[in-house]
Amino acid sequence: xxxxxxxxxxxxxxxxxxxxxxxxxxxxxxxxxxxxxxxxxxxxxxxxxxxxxxxxxxxxxxxxxxxxxxxxxxxxxxxxxxxxxxxxxxxxxxxxxxxxxxxxxxxxxxxxxxxxxxxxxxxxxxxxxxxxxxxxxxxxxxxxxxxxxxxxxxxxxxxxxxxxxxxxxxxxxxxxxxxxxx
Length: 182
What we know:
Layout: E1 8-12, E2 16-21, E3 27-31, E4 35-39, E5 46-50, E6 57-60, E7 64-69, E8 72-77, E9 81-85, E10 93-97, E11 103-107, E12 112-116, E13 128-132, E14 136-141, E15 148-150, E16 159-163
Parallel strand pairs: 1-5, 4-8, 5-9, 6-10, 9-13, 10-14, 11-15, 14-16
Antiparallel strand pairs: 1-2, 2-3, 6-7, 7-8, 11-12, 12-13
């Protein structure tokens, strides 16, 4: 599935997926496909991914994100904002991976947000990945040099971090997430 020149929204579930224009000028829906791929080329496209009742895995990054489980695999590429929800059951895991630019990860226990830290010079690189109610959340700093990780006062045992995150002192507010790509 491929986006339009405007703003679009993708919704992926284990049994169906839908890509539609924000202005409702088109909508494409597929049912019962084991693999669905949606790509964004322009605009402030958003994607929402939902889990199954089984054990599912979410991978989130700026270039692409996917949610997969038994019998389904939904991947989105180059979307400005991706939200993944673990609400149907199972022991779901989410892994967030930084990008080359400076990134921010805010842990809220079973939920987290990973985003670019204000790409003023190149707003096309702005992104925002959010995960909600996952059994396990991991934040992986692999390539950035000034990535920041904001943790609650007592990080939950369900949250894991790897890499060289800079962890500001407790109580430091994180920078605001971008609200658009371009």
